[in-house]
Amino acid sequence: MSRFWLRFMRGLDNPIVLREGISRMRTWRAPLAITLYLGLLGAFGYAVFAIGVIATQISHTTQSATALGAATFDSMTVFELILVLLFTPALAAGAISGEKERQTFDSLLVSNVSAFGIVWGKLVASMAYILLLVVSAIPLFAFVFIFGSIEPDQILITQALIIVTAFTIGSVALFWSALFKRSLAATVSAYGSAFALYGLSAALGYLLTYINTVRYVNASAGQPSDYGLHPLIYGNPFMAFFTLLVPQAGSFVGPIHLGRLLQLLVLDGGPVSQWGPTITSWQLSLYTQGALAVLCVFGAVMLVRGRRALPLRRIAVKAS
Q: What is the pLDDT confidence band of residue 191, given thresholds at 50, 70 and 90?
């Protein structure tokens, strides 16, 4: 166990992070990406706010500043999540495959940096830039405090959920980058995985929820029964944002017992289980995404470790 923690701490003290950070920030693409990110997010927030004001004037209705500020914040938060899902695969997918294309990957393999250190360094370097994008956008969200519509814990939880989502997509992209030799193949696979994880899974979750709902209604002779959302949609980050940003969502998307989640996962139509602790939508999203990120990092480390044996064998053959 002590050897494991020693290797883990050695992986954190990583020269790859410093090298990647310096080389990334030296180019003109880094400030351009930050400007584009903040420009799109700010323009979208202003558009939502302006549309709300104009709609109020046209309809001659009175909309409170609190409601208008909350709607703007909700829209900007979801749009920020979409931007992170678009930016992260492009930044992380070429981390290892780019080294293979430049024929510098073998130099990393014969260095003193471990396989975990290589993967972790590439992931931290990519996620540090995403974290910079998320942190730089916080001042854009600060204006909602003028309207008094958003609590500080809502901002903290939503930003943490965005960072975890970015870390998960970055881990998936890094796995594909370690698997393929070309950045194009890794990038396409990373975007396809992101679409499957957050788009297709939500559609499948809605379909399974509908099937489960019909079964419950038929079983109760047409009377509404106690059914719930399928875990594929209940743990989706967009659903987690919905439960966090819309206070009224707690009446029908509230915390659910772990046993009930397992029932819904396998479409069990039996009595509602009250077993286990209660889990909210955003908690399930954090747990599942964290587990997926760990699996992808482990897979990338195994791929790099398997590739590392090749140049070492070549050196041994040449020496003999």
A: very high
